[in-house]
Amino acid sequence: MQPRPRFIVFDVNETLSDMAPMGRRFAEVGAPELLATVWFAALLRDGFALTVTGGKETFSQVGEAVLRTVLTGATLDRPLDDAVGHILSGFTGLSVHPDVPDGVRALREAGLTLVTLTNGTVTVADQLLTSAGIRRHFDRLLSVDDADAWKPAAAAYAYAARACSAEIGEMLLVAVHPWDIHGANRAGMRTGWINRRQAPYPGYFATPDVTAPDLSDLAGQIV
After folding, report:
1. Could you read off the pLDDT of 122-167 as tens digits, one per residue?
2. Are residues 195 and 201 in contact, defined by beta-carbon separation less than 8 angstroms?
3. Torsion angle (degrees, nearest 10) of CA 21, 23, 24, 27
4. Phi and psi based region of residue 64 (left: phi greater than 0; alpha: psi -120 to 50; beta: remaining)
5. What are the residue ranges spanned by the domains of the chain?
6. Choosing a second label site near 204 at 20 to 30 A (CA), which of 31, 40, 81, 152?
């Protein structure tokens, strides 16, 4: 890929963080583990719906409201408020995927500037990267809380470019979500898709510039 990007922009939730433990959080309050996947998908759906219609709420606000809906009808072993608090607190204890530290270090050692751009909070991203011992490799942690809209709206990616004093074409987004890849492409960023599950890429979305099974492989293709 020529020329090489100057900035690598990382999605956080599921791209860097391993969210599998969130399923256990659901199980610990008496709900099915599968509800974790249902909840996260519904959270994104409602956030996107707000974005499309010109609204905006924080990831935390939407996440809690959707969680209360998803838990309705579940046989819980504690009051609903306590169950919601227990599940949401799981975000602060997540770890990065095993391939992330080496991939991050390889990109940084190649002289690239690393930043995050999340629909979630900077606090969660900071805790995640600090716990993994790789926070120092990131110049900036960005959240759409400070943008005009959630990803995949173009305004979110434009915000990242402004925050980094960069041209958007100098940036490459790394994500596991095809919808994020598509949004970044349409906004003018280059893109790298991490396909850890070896799933087919949806043909109705813009094709990523780089595809890899993990971050270490993707870093090798970029540098």
Report:
1. 999 999 999 999 999 999 999 999 999 999 999 999 999 999 999 9
2. yes
3. 170
4. alpha
5. 7-18+94-222, 21-93
6. 40
- Read off the DSSP letter of residue 32: -
pTM summary value? 0.95
Residue 11, burial from CB neighbour count under 10 angstroms (0-12, 13-18, 19+)? buried
Retrieve residue 68's tokens. 């209360």
In CATH terms, the fold of domain 21-93 is DNA polymerase; domain 1 (1.10.150)
Average pLDDT, the chain: 96
Query: Topology of domain 7-18+94-222, per CATH?
Result: Rossmann fold (3.40.50)
DSSP state of 214: S
Give the whole-angstrom CA distance, residue 153 versus residue 175.
15
Residue 2 has pLDDT above 80, yes or no: no
pLDDT digits (tens, 9 = 90+) for 20-73: 999 999 999 999 999 999 999 999 999 999 999 999 999 999 999 999 999 998
Cα distance between residue 26 and residue 32, in whole Å: 6
From the CB of residue 123, how many other CB atoms can be counted at a distance below 10 Å?
A: 13
HSE-CB of 155 using CA atoms within 13 angstroms: 13
